[in-house]
Amino acid sequence: MANYVEMWKELGMDLETHDALCQVLPTAFGDVYLSQENRPESMGFWDLVVADIHGIRPAELLEAQKNGQKVFGTFCVYVPDEVVVAAGGIVTGLCGGSQFWVPDGEKVLPKSTCPLIKASVGARLGRTCPFFRIADMYVGETTCDGKKKAWEILGQDVPMHIMDMPQMKRPEDVEKWTGEIKEFAKVVESVTGNTITPEKLQDAIHIINEKRKALARVYEARKAANIPISGKDALLMMQIAFFDDPVRCTQMANKLADELEQRIKDGVSVFKAGTKRILLSGTPMAIPNWKLHHIIETSGAAVVCEETCTGTRYFNNLVDETQTTLEGQYAAIARRYMEINCACFTPNTGRVDDILRLAREYKVDGVIDVNLKFCCLYDTEGYTVEKALKDAGIPVLGLETDYTDADAEQLRTRIEAFVEMLD
Ligand code: BJ8
């Protein structure tokens, strides 16, 4: 790892605590990732990014800031990247995926808050993540109650803009979301000092659509009978897509997709024939949360798709590129984002339809519906999801977990029994 200590110091980070994080991450990554055999060569790019996760990209962001660009930190796939990119800004995902940050979050949040929120708040307040230090502005949204209240705490420490999410998907809700996006655009224009023109927004829509298409190509390859990439590797690509420059992300994902398509032609698989295929549905898995994928893929099964926000919900559906006025473009962006099916909406039948469709398309043997502890939304929706799957004759296992390793053996026992039952 290159030496970024000066950079972290300038960012006001707690170096001593951060050192402890830097020591555990390489071992965790080595155990989970580098122990895999026959990985696609193109994964070398993502291995490199993880090896210097608090160095390479943060240094790029700081350089961009020196050149006048502004960085916006986001926590949800409903926040439209297109608007930021059109104003010459940069988006970086800020969702915390490590138990390391949870105790600092618990200093200000109830313990009974979902780990993703606790880790995100802890990463900022504990000063142990450069991305949380670099962002000029955080963009929150009114999705779940835990997040809404967490923004009030984070807002005392960093400039925040909150997007008011509709909770239903009626035409008037889509219109309301269009208005929220326009409001967001005004804020982004004022922070960046740049005006969004139809031409710039057109380019930005195209850039983000191309990224979606590239990520979707990698997922398409996972539908093959001989699975050319592990679920763990596909998850890593997705997690880093939230941080990376969108054009580079597109290039790297397309390069990986080329390799996977060649592997399919050559009959190369990373799993032995007959390995049970699993669709994972539920709450997102922010980096470095690789826990469930690792347990599943070392319990005799393969994850072939994720119906999560670090999976298909991130890239499904494109923004219509034919609009030429800002009015039409904002409406098109709103329509695309309102097609995402998060459990914060009611009713949310589209999500169940998606899960059933994905189960068919990826020819899965079973579905594991995962819920981050204390996420009431996905926990409650689990009832409907599991019932629909059972009615369709698709085996399903509902699991709840957090970022600790305390339940790892218990999860392994349940997953192994589930995989055995699929036989
Ligand atoms: S679109 S899933 S990224 S809100 S933080 S809801 S796990 S209690 S992350 Fe999310 Fe946007 Fe929806 Fe996706 Fe539950 Fe935790 Fe809330 Fe969470």
Index terms:
single chain; 423 residues; alpha/beta; four-stranded parallel β-sheet; 19 helices; 10% strand; globular; binds Double cubane cluster
Structural class by SSE content: alpha/beta
Instruction: Assign a percent range to the helix content.
Output: 40-55%
Mean pLDDT: 97
What share of the residues does DSSP label as strand, in percent?
Answer: 5-15%
Q: What spatial form do the alpha-carbon principal axes imply? A: globular
Low-confidence stretches at least 5 residues in length (pLDDT < 50)?
A: none
**What is the gyration radius calculated from CA atoms?**
21 Å
Give the strand order of the largest sheet, numbering strands 1, 2, ... along the chain: 2-1-3-4
What's the number of extended β-strand segments? 8
In this structure, how is the largest beta sheet organized?
4 strands, parallel
Bound molecules: Double cubane cluster
Written as H for each helix and E for each strand, in order along the chain, the element string is HHHHEHEHHHEHEHHHHEHEHHHEHEH
